[in-house]
Amino acid sequence: MSELFDAVDALVASRSPLPPPAERKRLRQAHGLTLDEIATALKVRRATLSGWEAGKTEPRPPERDAYARLLKQLARLYPPDPQPTGPEPAVPEAAPAPAAPAAPTDAPTTPTAVSEQEPPAQAVSHPRRTVRPARTSDASPPAPRPRTPPEPTGGDPRFANGPLLVLDADPEGRVTGYGVGGLVLDVPAKSLPALVEWTLRDARLGAPRLHQCGQDADPLLVLTEAACERYGLPPHLPEPERLAGRLPQDHKVLKQLDRADWRLTRRGFGPWARIYRPAQGRTRQCVQLCIPSWNALDPRTWGDAARLEPAGLARVLGTYAARVTTPRGSTAVTGLELMTALNPPTRAGEPDESGRRHREHRPGSLGEHPVDCAPCEAPDGHPLLAHLPRFHQRGPAEMLLEEAYDWARELTDAECMRRYLVGIDVNLAFGAAANGAVVGLASPPVHVTAPAFDPALPGSWLVDLSHVDLSRVRLGDRWRELRGDLLPSPFTPTGERPTGPAWYATPTVAYAVELGYDVTPREAWIREDKGRYLDGWYKRLRDAYVRTMGDLGVADKLPPADFLDAMAGHRQRDPEMAMVLDAVKSTVKGGIGKLRERARGGGWKPGQAWPALSRPTWRPDVRAAVISRARTNMHRKMLNLAAEAGRYPVAVLSDCAVYAADGPSPLHVLPYDEAGRTVPGSFRIGVSPGMVKHEGTQSTLWAEEMREKHGETLNLARYIKTGDVTAGDDEE
Fold first, then answer.
1. pTM of the entire predicted model
2. At what angle do helices 63-77 and 21-30 cross, to 10 degrees?
């Protein structure tokens, strides 16, 4: 009989009622829970839970019953709000949070756990929704394009209109705001101070926090040239202001803001301006402005986004905001701030005797305060190196030099007989390298002498790796004989074999051990406070990348041949989504690069500190670890391909490797069997980060002509995509 009861219980559980997808997400966010927390409790993947909330899939037993039970309990705590018929009430905070800092700082900043801007309890006028077509500057209507479905807003009434608006003005001075999902709003504000007030009071713009200990994203207003003129701003910055990167302090608009008690960050009023009032208690008042005509959207990362009509620009920026985060500056700045938003430095501590909560360090984060780097990790001009002579050139034994590959060699006679050179490019290589990277956290490095190497300890090691011979390496559990002269060294960016002791990040030294060689470090700077700080950052950017590729017609888990076919012309299928794709890729590369931001102008002199050093996210050791993993990952794939298929690269640039082949396709380079399997541990064709796509193909004759014209040291990987030697480097 008990078996029958169990069968009945299982049948009931298989049909456990669930609320609509949007309500599932609202309940989770109302309780301050993250996808990772619920996924861990239910023992499912984060992507699975995300699919349940998006309505793409439905849970099955036994997880369905547990998920339904969770939602039922949350529904009792957070019943849905009735449709407002009058003034909108203030929205309660989703979770307790510590007090905010006195004012937002320059981007990138270190957010603290603060609550969101709440609408006042008194009556407010809601923006009126209209369905007018977007105005364009061209007489002819834009060509039709495929549309992606609007991103889910999460059901938070505070942000009902999405993360941003693109503001445009007509000749009569009427201002219209274009939002995500085709939303069009009338904007009644007549001046810039009034616009900021309206945005915080009535516009219901913003985005929920990405972590329960973080803060909500500030509203973003994007001003077209017409909107700039309407609010008294120049449509284009004059030359002096363009060079300074901001408006002069005596500009009339800045005086208006000052009279209205609004402030600007130290960066002033530039292409990305933050307008705020000092926080009072837990209330944050801050609006971000983006002015594309002032070069806020760099064409190197956003393509022609600045030239789009308002509705198209809202689609591009809104999609990016939903999948990555609301832009807060360049993609590099946004990438850095995304790290902090996903891994905040502080959390609310236990209540004290008076019941008040105070901020405390959050384990697993980089903390609130900057951490000094090791002397070997410091770039030239750092205050730690102020004692060195002015023109002293540091060598490998004095500085850590972990950079991406830039290596090429001459073609062998056998390779010259092949007709083609085929370039293959690793998708989101630095993002894939960040996944699983163990890096130092909030504690300073500790110097040790003659340490035993520990691959689990992040840090920098002074060790001699010149004895590692690529002609004989251990792959797995056996030794293999290879043509070491046809492979780049994994220990230097130039691919040249090291000649003596040098500083290396932990992944590089660990790779030497993996190849079967003993290492004896002379000294090291190690970090015992460690963690996988970048995992959440990678996963969010990975999901954004894969989903955007899907919008461009390149689905996940396609067979290699079908994937290559789908990649042909994928950018032309939806140019706007191609802009989002470029921005996602630039966020990965720029975010990693920003970890070691160098001094730029401003009267800086070597030996003096520069502003970036005051950030907790100024971490050259973290950057070095990621680049080290990216380079050794690349080398490991090339090594496995050489060992199993006898194929050797002729040039490598960052994440692009060039091979000689008998045909023009990557399938002529990478051996796939009938079951779709290729060399284990080598390159695999596909859309996921770490897999490869076709970068470009040129003839062997082209290569010989280019090197005769430009020299034998020409890196063919740099120009394999277009064949034009004058083209810029388009690496990730």
1. 0.79
2. 60
